[in-house]
Specification:
Layout: H1 8-13, H2 24-34, H3 38-70, E1 74-76, E2 78-79, E3 85-86, H4 89-102, E4 105-113, E5 117-125, E6 130-137, H5 147-167, E7 171-173, H6 188-200, H7 206-214, H8 227-239
Parallel strand pairs: 1-7
Antiparallel strand pairs: 2-3, 4-5, 5-6
Length: 240
């Protein structure tokens, strides 16, 4: 149903036009020009606001999916407590900032303290939609840190992991320099989804070519970081 029929008054106002406006914003502009009533203008403003929010959310989802398909596995190259390897914030930022920026995404942090330290990662898209992810924890007093150092350590930790969760990305241990871009393998559910798409392609050589493209020997070895990219490629092939 065209939006024009939502309001009888608009149908009357636009009856003389061969092509009626098809978006809430276009309808609002035309209604103002035609001298529509305050009631109709108010309803159109509400409708336009909801429509813009929906479009912004859709743009955010598309941008995030495309960015995730390009973000590499972040290598755990820093050494922390008990000699454990981890990907520090600098490494994470170097990996993700150029890619998400290319897709109109950005992030910032909001911090509060009320007994625990709370860090909220706000992931935003240039169209206006944003989503928040909050993590909390106590000050890190390990290693004879002073009060300020303890707070700073926790802030850095929470910023790193709240951003990782907001983007839904993975980190890989840098064992021998060959792990870059590989990371953890996909889950069993993801593997099943991949196999179903391969079976939907009417080509017996599809699986072999697909695995060669990903440089793996089996579906179960597909890197988790490349699942979205692989799934999208297979879906496109299955629909063609």
């Amino acid at each position: 149903m065209r939006l024009i029929y939502l309001f009888p008054e608009l149908e009357r106002l636009f009856a003389s036009h061969q092509q009626a406006p098809t978006t809430p914003m276009a309808m609002l502009d035309r209604a103002v020009e035609k001298g529509a009533s305050i009631d109709v203008l108010t309803k159109l403003m509400d409708l336009a606001e909801r429509w813009e929010k929906t479009q912004a959310r859709k743009a955010f989802d598309v941008a995030l999916a495309r960015a995730k398909a390009e973000i590499p596995v972040v290598i755990k190259s820093a050494t922390g407590h008990n000699s454990k390897k981890y990907a520090d914030f600098a490494a994470l930022a170097r990996a993700v900032d150029p890619i998400i920026g290319k897709h109109g995404l950005s992030y910032r942090f909001r911090t509060t303290q009320n007994g625990t330290i709370n860090v909220t990662c706000i992931l935003s898209h240039e169209a206006g939609h944003f989503e928040e992810n909050t993590l909390a924890g106590p000050a890190d007093t390990s290693g004879n840190k002073n009060a300020i150092q303890s707070i700073g350590s926790t802030l850095t930790y929470l910023q790193r992991y709240s951003l990782v969760q907001a983007l839904g990305i993975a980190a890989s241990k840098d064992d021998d320099g060959k792990a870059a871009g590989i990371g953890n393998a996909i889950s069993e559910d993801q593997a099943i989804a991949i196999r179903e798409l391969i079976e939907a392609i009417d080509d017996k050589s599809a699986e072999a070519r697909f695995l060669k493209w990903l440089k793996v020997k089996a579906v179960a070895e597909i890197p988790a970081a490349r699942f979205d990219e692989a799934f999208a490629a297979l879906k496109k092939a299955a629909q063609s």
